[in-house]
Amino acid sequence: MNRDGLRVGPVRLEGQLVVLEPLRPEHHDGLVTAVQDGELWRLWYTTIPAPGEIASEIERRLQLQELGQMVPFTARRRSDHSIIGMTSYMNIDQQLPRVEIGSTWNAASAHGTGTNTESKLLLLAHAFEELGCPAVELRTHWLNAQSRAAIERLGARLDGILRSHTRAKDGTLRDTCVYSIVQSEWPAVRSGLEYRLRRHRSSP
Protein backbone atom coordinates (compact mmCIF):
# COMPACT_ATOMS: atom_id res chain seq x y z
CA MET A 1 0.00 0.00 0.00
CA ASN A 2 1.51 3.35 -1.01
CA ARG A 3 1.68 6.54 1.02
CA ASP A 4 -1.78 7.56 -0.24
CA GLY A 5 -3.32 4.27 0.87
CA LEU A 6 -3.77 2.97 -2.70
CA ARG A 7 -3.45 -0.79 -2.87
CA VAL A 8 -2.07 -2.62 -5.91
CA GLY A 9 -5.25 -4.22 -7.23
CA PRO A 10 -7.35 -4.90 -10.34
CA VAL A 11 -7.70 -1.96 -12.73
CA ARG A 12 -8.63 -1.42 -16.37
CA LEU A 13 -5.91 0.28 -18.42
CA GLU A 14 -6.80 1.65 -21.87
CA GLY A 15 -4.48 2.71 -24.67
CA GLN A 16 -4.99 3.48 -28.35
CA LEU A 17 -3.94 0.01 -29.50
CA VAL A 18 -4.70 -2.26 -26.57
CA VAL A 19 -6.89 -2.52 -23.49
CA LEU A 20 -5.72 -4.38 -20.39
CA GLU A 21 -8.75 -5.81 -18.60
CA PRO A 22 -8.78 -7.53 -15.20
CA LEU A 23 -8.57 -11.27 -15.95
CA ARG A 24 -11.89 -13.11 -15.73
CA PRO A 25 -12.88 -16.77 -16.25
CA GLU A 26 -15.03 -15.81 -19.26
CA HIS A 27 -11.87 -14.80 -21.12
CA HIS A 28 -11.02 -18.51 -21.45
CA ASP A 29 -12.08 -19.14 -25.05
CA GLY A 30 -10.43 -15.99 -26.35
CA LEU A 31 -7.19 -16.86 -24.58
CA VAL A 32 -7.25 -20.38 -26.05
CA THR A 33 -7.56 -18.90 -29.54
CA ALA A 34 -4.74 -16.45 -28.81
CA VAL A 35 -2.30 -19.06 -27.50
CA GLN A 36 -2.96 -21.26 -30.55
CA ASP A 37 -1.80 -18.35 -32.75
CA GLY A 38 1.85 -19.36 -33.10
CA GLU A 39 1.61 -22.42 -30.81
CA LEU A 40 3.30 -20.39 -28.11
CA TRP A 41 3.34 -23.17 -25.52
CA ARG A 42 5.97 -25.01 -27.60
CA LEU A 43 8.64 -22.36 -26.85
CA TRP A 44 11.14 -24.15 -24.61
CA TYR A 45 12.68 -21.09 -22.91
CA THR A 46 9.48 -19.69 -21.43
CA THR A 47 6.39 -21.00 -19.65
CA ILE A 48 3.19 -20.42 -21.61
CA PRO A 49 0.08 -22.55 -21.01
CA ALA A 50 -1.09 -24.97 -23.69
CA PRO A 51 -4.73 -24.63 -24.83
CA GLY A 52 -5.85 -27.31 -22.37
CA GLU A 53 -4.08 -25.52 -19.51
CA ILE A 54 -5.69 -22.11 -19.93
CA ALA A 55 -8.50 -22.77 -17.44
CA SER A 56 -6.09 -23.84 -14.70
CA GLU A 57 -3.81 -20.89 -15.49
CA ILE A 58 -6.71 -18.46 -15.11
CA GLU A 59 -7.58 -20.09 -11.79
CA ARG A 60 -3.95 -19.95 -10.62
CA ARG A 61 -3.59 -16.27 -11.41
CA LEU A 62 -6.91 -15.36 -9.79
CA GLN A 63 -5.94 -17.27 -6.64
CA LEU A 64 -2.71 -15.28 -6.44
CA GLN A 65 -4.76 -12.12 -6.90
CA GLU A 66 -6.88 -13.09 -3.89
CA LEU A 67 -3.66 -13.37 -1.88
CA GLY A 68 -2.54 -9.91 -3.00
CA GLN A 69 0.48 -11.35 -4.82
CA MET A 70 -0.59 -10.81 -8.44
CA VAL A 71 -2.83 -8.56 -10.53
CA PRO A 72 -3.49 -10.45 -13.80
CA PHE A 73 -4.69 -8.81 -17.01
CA THR A 74 -6.14 -9.97 -20.30
CA ALA A 75 -4.84 -7.99 -23.29
CA ARG A 76 -7.47 -7.08 -25.89
CA ARG A 77 -6.67 -5.43 -29.24
CA ARG A 78 -8.77 -2.30 -29.69
CA SER A 79 -9.07 -2.48 -33.48
CA ASP A 80 -11.14 -5.69 -33.48
CA HIS A 81 -11.72 -6.31 -29.73
CA SER A 82 -10.01 -9.70 -29.95
CA ILE A 83 -8.11 -11.15 -27.01
CA ILE A 84 -4.40 -11.37 -27.81
CA GLY A 85 -2.72 -12.48 -24.58
CA MET A 86 -2.04 -12.07 -20.88
CA THR A 87 0.24 -10.07 -18.59
CA SER A 88 0.40 -9.24 -14.90
CA TYR A 89 1.80 -7.36 -11.98
CA MET A 90 3.39 -10.08 -9.86
CA ASN A 91 5.64 -10.59 -6.82
CA ILE A 92 3.87 -7.58 -5.36
CA ASP A 93 5.21 -5.77 -2.30
CA GLN A 94 2.12 -3.89 -1.14
CA GLN A 95 3.97 -1.88 1.49
CA LEU A 96 6.74 -0.30 -0.58
CA PRO A 97 4.99 -0.70 -3.11
CA ARG A 98 6.98 -2.56 -5.77
CA VAL A 99 5.83 -4.82 -8.60
CA GLU A 100 7.27 -7.06 -11.27
CA ILE A 101 5.72 -6.99 -14.75
CA GLY A 102 5.74 -10.56 -15.98
CA SER A 103 3.93 -13.78 -16.95
CA THR A 104 3.36 -12.06 -20.31
CA TRP A 105 2.58 -13.67 -23.64
CA ASN A 106 0.96 -12.41 -26.83
CA ALA A 107 -0.42 -14.12 -29.93
CA ALA A 108 2.15 -14.38 -32.73
CA SER A 109 0.04 -12.21 -35.04
CA ALA A 110 0.22 -9.37 -32.48
CA HIS A 111 4.03 -9.34 -32.44
CA GLY A 112 5.47 -6.18 -33.96
CA THR A 113 2.13 -4.34 -33.96
CA GLY A 114 2.86 -2.09 -30.99
CA THR A 115 0.35 -3.73 -28.66
CA ASN A 116 3.00 -5.18 -26.33
CA THR A 117 4.93 -1.90 -26.27
CA GLU A 118 1.77 -0.02 -25.36
CA SER A 119 0.90 -2.63 -22.72
CA LYS A 120 4.27 -1.99 -21.07
CA LEU A 121 3.67 1.76 -21.25
CA LEU A 122 0.26 1.39 -19.58
CA LEU A 123 1.57 -0.90 -16.83
CA LEU A 124 4.65 1.21 -16.11
CA ALA A 125 2.69 4.48 -16.11
CA HIS A 126 0.15 3.09 -13.64
CA ALA A 127 2.90 1.68 -11.41
CA PHE A 128 4.98 4.86 -11.28
CA GLU A 129 2.35 7.59 -11.61
CA GLU A 130 -0.67 6.13 -9.78
CA LEU A 131 0.75 3.56 -7.35
CA GLY A 132 3.95 5.49 -6.57
CA CYS A 133 6.29 2.54 -7.06
CA PRO A 134 9.96 3.51 -6.59
CA ALA A 135 10.97 0.68 -8.93
CA VAL A 136 9.44 -1.85 -11.32
CA GLU A 137 11.10 -5.19 -12.01
CA LEU A 138 11.18 -7.41 -15.10
CA ARG A 139 12.67 -10.91 -15.29
CA THR A 140 13.48 -13.37 -18.05
CA HIS A 141 15.52 -16.49 -18.85
CA TRP A 142 19.23 -15.86 -19.48
CA LEU A 143 18.89 -17.75 -22.77
CA ASN A 144 15.79 -15.86 -23.96
CA ALA A 145 17.70 -13.39 -26.14
CA GLN A 146 14.52 -11.95 -27.69
CA SER A 147 12.99 -11.15 -24.31
CA ARG A 148 16.24 -9.73 -22.93
CA ALA A 149 16.62 -7.45 -25.94
CA ALA A 150 13.02 -6.26 -25.60
CA ILE A 151 13.46 -5.49 -21.89
CA GLU A 152 16.70 -3.63 -22.56
CA ARG A 153 14.99 -1.58 -25.30
CA LEU A 154 12.58 -0.36 -22.64
CA GLY A 155 15.51 1.24 -20.84
CA ALA A 156 15.59 -1.27 -17.98
CA ARG A 157 18.96 -2.03 -16.40
CA LEU A 158 20.27 -5.44 -15.45
CA ASP A 159 20.40 -5.76 -11.65
CA GLY A 160 21.90 -9.23 -11.70
CA ILE A 161 21.52 -12.88 -12.62
CA LEU A 162 20.05 -15.47 -10.25
CA ARG A 163 21.99 -18.61 -11.07
CA SER A 164 20.06 -21.93 -11.10
CA HIS A 165 17.13 -19.90 -9.86
CA THR A 166 14.21 -22.07 -10.94
CA ARG A 167 13.44 -25.14 -12.98
CA ALA A 168 12.17 -24.75 -16.54
CA LYS A 169 9.30 -26.85 -17.89
CA ASP A 170 11.76 -29.21 -19.60
CA GLY A 171 13.44 -29.91 -16.27
CA THR A 172 16.57 -27.82 -16.86
CA LEU A 173 17.69 -25.23 -14.33
CA ARG A 174 17.07 -21.64 -15.38
CA ASP A 175 19.35 -18.69 -14.79
CA THR A 176 17.07 -15.67 -14.32
CA CYS A 177 18.05 -12.16 -15.45
CA VAL A 178 16.61 -9.51 -13.13
CA TYR A 179 16.07 -6.05 -14.61
CA SER A 180 14.53 -2.93 -13.14
CA ILE A 181 13.44 0.61 -13.94
CA VAL A 182 13.55 3.12 -11.08
CA GLN A 183 11.37 6.19 -10.61
CA SER A 184 14.07 8.66 -11.70
CA GLU A 185 14.47 6.79 -15.01
CA TRP A 186 10.75 6.69 -15.77
CA PRO A 187 10.42 10.01 -17.68
CA ALA A 188 13.11 8.96 -20.19
CA VAL A 189 11.65 5.46 -20.48
CA ARG A 190 8.17 6.92 -21.10
CA SER A 191 9.53 9.19 -23.83
CA GLY A 192 11.25 6.24 -25.51
CA LEU A 193 8.11 4.11 -25.46
CA GLU A 194 5.93 6.91 -26.81
CA TYR A 195 8.43 7.55 -29.62
CA ARG A 196 8.34 3.86 -30.61
CA LEU A 197 4.56 3.85 -30.59
CA ARG A 198 4.06 6.82 -32.91
CA ARG A 199 4.25 4.84 -36.15
CA HIS A 200 1.77 2.24 -34.88
CA ARG A 201 -0.67 4.78 -33.46
CA SER A 202 -0.63 6.87 -36.64
CA SER A 203 -1.36 3.88 -38.89
CA PRO A 204 -4.92 3.54 -40.23
TrEMBL record:
InterPro entries: Acyl_CoA_acyltransferase, GNAT_dom. It comes from the Bacteria. Signal peptide: none annotated. The keyword Thylakoid does not apply. Residues 19-157 form the N-acetyltransferase domain. Pfam families: Acetyltransf_3 (PF13302). Coiled coil: none annotated. One of its GO terms (molecular function) is acyltransferase activity, transferring groups other than amino-acyl groups. This is GCN5-related N-acetyltransferase. It comes from Deinococcus proteolyticus (strain ATCC 35074 / DSM 20540 / JCM 6276 / NBRC 101906 / NCIMB 13154 / VKM Ac-1939 / CCM 2703 / MRP).
